[in-house]
TrEMBL record:
Keywords: Cobalamin biosynthesis, Glycosyltransferase, Transferase. Its EC number is 2.4.2.21. Pathway: Nucleoside biosynthesis; alpha-ribazole biosynthesis; alpha-ribazole from 5,6-dimethylbenzimidazole: step 1/2. One of its GO terms (biological process) is cobalamin biosynthetic process. It holds the Pfam family DBI_PRT. Transmembrane segments: none annotated. It catalyses: 5,6-dimethylbenzimidazole + nicotinate beta-D-ribonucleotide = alpha-ribazole 5'-phosphate + nicotinate + H(+). Catalyzes the synthesis of alpha-ribazole-5'-phosphate from nicotinate mononucleotide (NAMN) and 5,6-dimethylbenzimidazole (DMB). One of its GO terms (molecular function) is nicotinate-nucleotide-dimethylbenzimidazole phosphoribosyltransferase activity. PANTHER family: NICOTINATE-NUCLEOTIDE--DIMETHYLBENZIMIDAZOLE PHOSPHORIBOSYLTRANSFERASE. This is Nicotinate-nucleotide--dimethylbenzimidazole phosphoribosyltransferase. The active site is at E310 (proton acceptor). It comes from Halalkalibacter krulwichiae.
Length: 339
């Protein structure tokens, strides 16, 4: 399924309607730009945004063995259990916006087969990409396909917007490696504190990722799929698939923070036509996220100094996205007022 370019006639119709609403021209600022983007994505002049679904992809990372995270890998499975119990931040925010939370095990390094979640485990975590490729290209393609299939299922169930979320101890390392490789930014400029590293620990993380990129012989001539397989994450590939399928089905995907944005970068490198469909919910405090957003040339909706993941920033931004669509459908025009 190909990604369609935006329909210029629909964009023109939405813009004209916005300019007739009972307000000064452009007075709702970025909300108006978001409304036009939603019209482009959906190919509807007055899109309906409702029934959000939060898709949380979970997987572990072999690179954690190098001491790049403040938390042990066991936390990934514990957090999946917390999602199921409804005790995580994303559950709280999902309840607030009336969203369904779906957790997808694509690579948790533990037996969580009894949990009532979506079971699509490809591997028990990635390999340690300091020493070997994180995945095979076949595994990366399979993860992309899982993301596409899950996104398709939820769109067919009537969800008019998808939110990307993730859980995976070590995934900021994989994301930083991907961003450095795919944007050619210096590693030290895209590696942050993750879950709470000290500066000394961050410097160690930088050193590990630099060495890993060298060991994997990552270069600018390498295909994005190869880069994803060499230093990426299974859940990151899954999120890239979700983003691509949302665009192909003309359904908005609200992209969360640094890890989800790294997945958006992968999606863009695989299919450049996805760019106008990308909606980034917030800018996280991870230093690499600011660099990545500049590379993508996308302004996030929020900037709240978040660094949790799970889809939390996107859930917080969702009411603004819904407001943009409601403005188009429910706000009076000057003609309605008799002017």
């Amino acid at each position: 399924m190909k990604i369609k370019p935006f329909n210029d006639e629909v964009i023109a119709e939405t813009t004209a309607h916005l300019n007739q609403l009972a307000k000064p021209l452009g007075s709702l600022g970025r909300v108006e730009k978001l409304a036009i983007q939603l019209a482009g994505i959906t190919e509807e002049a007055k899109p309906v945004i409702e029934k959000p679904a939060i898709l949380v992809a979970a997987a572990d990372h072999g690179i954690v063995a190098e001491g790049v995270s403040a938390y042990p890998k066991e936390v990934t499975a514990l957090m999946v259990e917390n999602f199921v119990r409804g005790g995580a931040a994303i559950n709280v925010f999902a309840n607030q916006i009336g969203a369904e939370v779906a957790v997808i095990d694509v690579g948790v390094n533990a037996d969580i087969s009894t949990q009532p979640i979506i079971h699509e485990k490809l591997r028990w975590g990635t390999r340690n990409f300091l020493h070997e490729d994180a995945m095979t290209e076949e595994e990366a393609l399979t993860a992309l396909t899982v993301g596409r299939e899950v996104a398709g299922t939820y769109i067919e169930k009537g969800h008019r917007l998808l939110i990307t979320g993730e859980m995976g101890i070590g995934n900021t390392s994989a994301s930083s490696a991907l961003v450095a490789a795919l944007t050619e930014e210096p590693v030290e400029k895209v590696v942050g504190a993750g879950t709470g590293l000290t500066e000394q620990e961050r410097q160690k993380k930088i050193k590990v990722i630099k060495q890993a990129l060298e060991n994997r012989k990552v270069n600018s001539n390498m295909s994005p799929l190869s880069v994803l397989a060499k230093v990426g994450g299974i859940e990151i590939a899954t999120l890239a698939g979700i983003i691509l399928e949302g665009a192909a089905r003309q359904t908005p995907v609200l992209i969360d923070g640094f890890i989800s944005s790294a997945a958006a970068l992968v999606a863009l490198k695989l299919e450049p036509a996805v760019h106008p469909y990308l909606i980034i919910a917030h800018q996280s405090v991870e230093v690499g996220h600011e660099r990545l957003l500049k590379y993508l040339n996308i302004e996030p909706i929020l900037q709240l100094n978040l660094r949790l993941g799970e889809g939390t920033g996107a859930a917080l931004a969702y009411p603004i996205v819904e407001a943009a669509s409601r403005m188009l459908r429910e706000m009076a025009t000057f003609e309605d007022l008799g002017l």
